[in-house]
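Q: Convert this sequence to structure tokens.
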Amino acid sequence: MEFKKAGSTDAEEISKLYDDVCEYLSEHKNYPGWKKGIYPTIDDANMGIKESSLYVAKDNNRIVGTMILRHKPEEGYKNVEWMTDNNYEKIYVVYTLAVHPDFIGLGIGKKLLDFAEELARKEGCISLRLDVVKGNIPAENLYKKCGYKYIGTTSLGYEAYGLPWYNLYEKVLELGSEC
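A:
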């Protein structure tokens, strides 16, 4: 498995992965509330590529998972008390963690989080933060398994999409706290 920053040549394949995930979710329990053509889309991929914040997991040259890592929080993150100081130059926020439906259950999500942690440590970050739609049990179980601690529940302003509440998680990066 190879992990790397996405480039402009990856945009179409990432867009297809997002569409495949959304189609899968429309036929199964849609825990994150993602919808094809609304979120995530090729525009999200292109923005992540432009910001140099979109990473891909490749298996045999096929993109099997993606995530965005930014040093920028959601506005609603200000409404809770975190375990570490809010110095976002030293904190990565994980966005849009996605695994292609053909690779669900193979540990790709965990490997993406492991990669995020490794990168954050190399850059001297103090923690990783993320949010998850309240009730997205599979994602929350993964985050807890990887050492993320529940911080609180808040609105992130997505009520119009039927997503009023998000659970926030943080992983403090201490020595020996590998996922």
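Helices lie at 11-27, 42-50, 108-122, 137-145.
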